[in-house]
C-alpha cells in the first residue's frame, strides 16, 4: 500500500524519521484498522527532509533481503521501566552485558507496540557500542522465510547458511510467522543450534508465549523457551505518564502535566499508540494555534477510539482556563482585587461556571473565595448585558467555550 502523506503544513513538527514513521503507523492504523510497518520513508528534495531512510543496498545476486538497519534510537537509556516490563528489561540488559552467556536464547513476548523490538535492538546497539565489529543480524521471521525460500530457488543455500550462522548475534522479530512453515522451521532449528553451540547470542520476539503459538514444531518451541522467556504487558498509568514525559523531553516539547495525564488516561493500549497520541495532540494544537490544554488534547483524540474519560468540567478548571486566557493568576480570580483587568475575567469565570456546570449560585460563590451568591448573580447580569454590545467579549467567550468543551 502506498500512502501519500501531506507533509506541507506539518513538516515543522516532525523532526526525526522515527516520528514520521510513527505518524504513518497511526495513519495506517486509522485507515485500515490494522497495524502495519512502513518500510521506507522517501522524502523529496523540496520537503526539507534528508532521505535517510532510503533502502540499503541489496546483497546483489544472493537472493538475500537487504539488511534491515538497527534503529540507533532504541537504547536502554531511553527505555522506561515499570512493573510491566521490568523482567524483560533486566534480562535484555543482562544479555547485552554478557552476550551468549546467561540469557541465551532470550525470548521476549507480548502484545503489539509494547517495546519488544526496542529492547531487542537495544541489546544489539549495546553490543556494537562495545565492539563495533560485532556481526549482528536483525531480521523479522518473514525475512528469514523469504531468504530461505530464495536460497532454495537459486540454489544458494550455502550462502544462506554463511549469512545466518557466522554471527555474534541473531535477532529475529515476530517468530509467530514461522507457524506452519515446516521446512523453514527445520532450517531455523539448525541455525539456532549452530549459533547456540558456539555461544552466540540469540534474541527472539513473539506476540504470545511460543507454547501457545499453533503450528510450531515442538522441538522448536522447546528451543525457544530454553533460556528465559519473558513477558511484556501493557504499562500501568504511572509508567505511561513517565513514557510520555520522556518522549516529550526527547522531542524538546513542553507539555503540561495535566495534558500528559489526560493522554495516559485515554490511551491505555500500547506505547506506540501512546506516542502517536502525543504527536497528534501537538500537531492539533499547533495547527489550531492553541496551547496544549487538556481540552485541546481531548479534542485532538476525539474519534480515535480511545476511552472517553475526559474529566468533567469543574469550577476550578474554568477558573484555571480563564486565568490562563487573560494571563492572570487563578488566585486573582479568587481574590478581592477590583482592577478592571481582574474584575472582568472574574465575572467571566463566574458566568461560565453557571453556564457550563450544574452548580448553584451559592456553590459558585463559595468556590470563588467565599463570595455571596448575589455577587455571582451581579456578575452574570453584567456579562449578559455587555454581551449585547461588546464584540470582543463575545469573541473571548466563544474561544473559552471551545477550549473547555
Ligand atoms: N518502556 C518504553 N519506554 C520508552 N519507549 C517505549 C517503551 N516501550 C515501547 N516504547 C516505544 O514504543 C514504540 C513501539 O515499540 P516496539 O516497536 O519495540 O514494540 P513491539 O512490542 O516490538 O511491537 P510490535 O509487536 O508491533 O512489533 C517504539 O517507538 C518504542 O521505542
TrEMBL record:
Subcellular locations according to the entry: Cytoplasm
CC annotations in GO: cytoplasm; plasma membrane
InterPro entries: AAA+_ATPase, Chromosome_initiator_DnaA, Chromosome_initiator_DnaA-like, Chromosome_initiator_DnaA_CS, DnaA_C, DnaA_dom, P-loop_NTPase, Trp_repressor/repl_initiator
CDD domains the UniProt entry points to: AAA (cd00009), Bac_DnaA_C (cd06571)
Positions of region (Domain III, AAA+ region): 69-285
Record-annotated Chromosomal replication initiator DnaA C-terminal domain positions: 314-383
Location of the region described as Domain I, interacts with DnaA modulators in the Swiss-Prot/TrEMBL record: 1-67
Entry's Gene Ontology BP terms: DNA replication initiation; regulation of DNA replication
Pfam family, one: Bac_DnaA_C
Top-level lineage group: Bacteria
Domain annotation AAA+ ATPase: ranges: 102-233
GO function term, MF aspect, one: DNA replication origin binding
Region described as Domain IV, binds dsDNA: 286-405
Subunit structure: Oligomerizes as a right-handed, spiral filament on DNA at oriC.
PANTHER family: CHROMOSOMAL REPLICATION INITIATOR PROTEIN DNAA
HAMAP family, per database record: DnaA_bact (MF_00377)
Domain-related comment: Domain I is involved in oligomerization and binding regulators, domain II is flexibile and of varying length in different bacteria, domain III forms the AAA+ region, while domain IV binds dsDNA.
Recorded family membership: Belongs to the DnaA family.
Function statement: Plays an essential role in the initiation and regulation of chromosomal replication. ATP-DnaA binds to the origin of replication (oriC) to initiate formation of the DNA replication initiation complex once per cell cycle. Binds the DnaA box (a 9 base pair repeat at the origin) and separates the double-stranded (ds)DNA. Forms a right-handed helical filament on oriC DNA; dsDNA binds to the exterior of the filament while single-stranded (ss)DNA is stabiized in the filament's interior.
Name of the protein: Chromosomal replication initiator protein DnaA
Species, as recorded: Limosilactobacillus equigenerosi DSM 18793 = JCM 14505
Gene it is expressed from: dnaA
